[in-house]
Design a protein that fits this description.
The chain has about 650 residues and is an alpha+beta fold. It is built from 26 helices and 18 strands. The radius of gyration is 24 Å and the shape is globular. The C terminus is likely disordered.
């Protein structure tokens, strides 16, 4: 299991073996290089920890614990965990700050706990197989055990076609769960012949916002910007803590530019920056990234070129890394970028994810605000009439109004994300096979998010959107297929200053006008950014980083795509209607380039292709002339493990 995850920790391997218990660690050494080997234990050697991630306030925590009589044997952040467990037991989790997936074994109590950070930065998968509970940072580790069979969960695939993400706890693998952010599992083994093991899941933190009308209005804008600046500087300073150099991604947008500016202010201009150059003028951000770097005084970015052929060549590796169908081709670009970071000898980078989620930086919030004006007359439902009229005029299939009402009821009312994800969800009507349609008719993936309806009814509607953004897009996609999974596939750790606990707590209390002022998104961040970066960047509208979708349908079509989408392969998996896939592959080129109806079809075809590719790689059925994933390590991986 550990060797299947060697890419996540090529530096060291550590094991703890007891009757009925095995803990393993693959380490990417960043803090405490010489003495941070895991498992880490307490003075009495009765509490053991394996840990993926970073605890950014470990310096302060260590000093506090020493003052309370705890003794330390290493210089790594991991060692504060067993001591905090000694002091706080279950209350430890809410006191941890950072990004983490942790397994802790208390030998005296015969108790195992597994926990994951508040926002879901570090992944943690688990599966119960009879009397055994298995867990790992990636599903590959579970499959490599030989105890977890690779079988598809069609409802998990339906989540991909609902959210363009896998937010969990359901995954695309049957009987494999993703522990939700801010939760921990408490596992107590069976005692006695008739006893059953206890596995209970608990939340140690839940996202919350003030009641509508009770938010902090921020009557002194300068003071508000000053406070935000102080907290963000502190978050960046803590994430620069490492015993290896820390770099940064720089896209040229306001989010990453701010992080680089603050990092250079704290550490000087020698921080390496990295960016992707997409070879389509409307998608390329290199000029903006270069402008930001020059203004800040940072090094010019190391550039990773990304072309159509790179997307095709990289996608099988991307799906293997993500362990789920991935629709966003930009993830392939970030997989290549992290490989470039690794080739430069860098292990850690900062990035700007979280700003768009906390400060509503996505264009569909503005669209929702506009279309919301149609519903000012209660009981008429003009917005639904307008949506349906647009879809009919463009000959796009659409769900009945009852479907939309059901979704809205699942998330406490109208939400900008329903329309954003609806663009992809239409693909179910176009491409699903009859059996998939029957399954989808019996389930509502939105309910599996466990949206806190009763509490959220007191929030401003914009804050309900922030909750969905964090739970679905951030945790289910940006921090996984576009973050941890592609970076750690190349042994690179990504850190997120905007996901600092204090930064979120500060922003969560503010009135929505500091997020969306009229139609100006990320209002507070842009006010701060004007102090640090070029005004043209600070005021630049949101450009969603993406790569072309149509490279998978070029003429002549790529061989592996043709094989995956053949009638034979589509019938073998049974997820999609072969005739409809063939029809839309021919017809979408006749649709107006750049239009929403065409984008919807392109996303759907990308999702079909990615699902077929995922099935080929993991399910043991050969659909194309591509190597499948294997739990048997390659010779190179075995050699690296032996060397470590």
């Amino acid at each position: 299991m550990a060797r299947a995850l060697i890419h996540r920790g090529p530096d060291e391997e550590g094991l703890l073996l007891r009757p009925g218990l095995g803990l393993a660690s693959r380490r990417l050494s960043i803090v405490g290089l010489a003495d941070g080997q895991q498992p880490v234990t307490n003075e009495d050697r009765n509490v053991f920890v394996v840990f993926n991630g970073e605890l950014f306030d470990y310096v302060e925590r260590r000093a506090d614990l020493k003052g309370r009589g705890h003794r330390f044997a290493t210089h790594c952040d991991t060692e504060i965990i067993p001591h905090m467990w000694e002091d706080h037991r279950d209350g430890m989790w809410e006191r941890l700050r950072g990004q983490f997936a942790i397994a802790l074994w208390d030998e005296r109590r015969g108790q195992l706990q597994l926990g994951r950070d508040r926002f879901g930065i570090a992944p943690l998968f688990w599966s119960r197989q009879g009397d055994w509970l298995l867990f790992a940072s990636e599903i590959k580790g579970l499959l490599a055990s030989g105890m977890v069979p690779a079988r598809p969960d069609r409802r998990g695939i339906d989540h991909v076609f609902t959210f363009s993400a896998v937010p969990g706890p359901r995954t695309c693998f049957e009987k494999v769960q993703l522990l939700p952010p801010g939760h921990f599992l408490n596992i107590i083994p069976a005692r006695g012949n008739d006893a059953q093991p206890v596995v209970e899941e608990r939340a140690f933190w839940e996202m919350d916002f003030p009641d509508r009308g009770a938010e902090e209005r921020g009557e002194n804008p300068k003071q508000l910007v000053d406070d935000f600046e102080r907290l963000l500087l502190q978050a960046v300073e803590e994430r620069l803590r490492a015993d290896v150099p820390v770099g940064a991604y720089l896209s040229g947008g306001v989010d990453s530019s701010m992080i680089v500016a603050l990092a250079c202010h704290l550490k000087g201009p020698d921080i390496n920056t990295y960016t992707v150059r997409v070879h389509e003028p409307e998608l390329d951000e290199l000029d903006a990234a270069t402008l930001s770097a020059r203004h800040i005084g940072a090094k010019l970015p190391v550039v990773q070129d990304f072309r159509d052929e790179d997307a095709l060549a990289t996608y099988p590796k991307l799906i293997a890394a993500a362990e789920a169908p991935v629709i966003d081709t930009a993830c392939a670009a970030l997989l290549q970028l992290s490989a470039r970071v690794h080739s430069c000898g860098q292990k850690v980078v900062l990035t700007g994810e979280g700003a768009d989620e906390w400060l509503v930086g996505y264009p569909w919030y503005k669209a929702a605000k506009l279309i919301g004006y149609l519903d000012l007359v209660p009981g008429v439902g003009l917005s639904n009439l307008a949506r349906n009229a647009y879809l009919r005029a463009n000959k796009v299939p659409h769900f009945p109004n009852a479907w939309r009402r059901e979704v809205e009821n699942s998330v406490g009312g109208p939400n900008a994300w329903i329309d954003a994800y609806g663009l992809l969800a239409i693909s179910k009507l176009r491409f699903y096979s009859e059996s998939m349609r029957e399954m989808a008719a019996q389930t509502n993936p939105w309910t599996e998010l466990n949206f806190p309806i009763e509490r959220a009814q007191r929030w401003d509607p914009l804050h309900r959107g922030v909750w969905i953004a964090a739970r679905v897009l951030l945790a289910g996609h940006l921090l996984q297929a576009k973050g941890d999974r592609v970076a750690m596939h190349n042994s690179v750790e990504v850190r997120y200053p905007f996901l600092d606990e204090d930064v979120f707590d500060f922003l969560s209390k503010l009135h929505p006008r500091w997020r969306l002022r009229g139609f100006r998104d990320k209002h507070l961040l842009r006010l701060l950014a004007e102090r640090w970066i070029p005004k043209s960047v600070a005021r630049r509208h949101k450009v969603i980083f993406r790569a072309p979708l149509d490279s998978f349908h070029m003429d002549p079509e790529p061989r592996f795509v043709k094989e995956l989408l053949s009638d034979e392969s589509l019938r073998k998996t049974g997820y999609f209607d072969p005739a409809e896939v063939k029809r839309w592959r021919n017809d979408f080129r006749k649709m107006r380039a750049g239009s929403l109806p065409r984008l919807s079809v392109e996303m759907g075809l990308m999702a079909v292709t990615a699902t077929q590719l995922w099935h080929h790689l993991f399910m043991g059925e050969s659909l194309a002339d591509l190597p499948a994933w294997s739990s048997i390590p390659t010779p190179a991986a075995t050699e690296a493990a032996a060397a470590a």
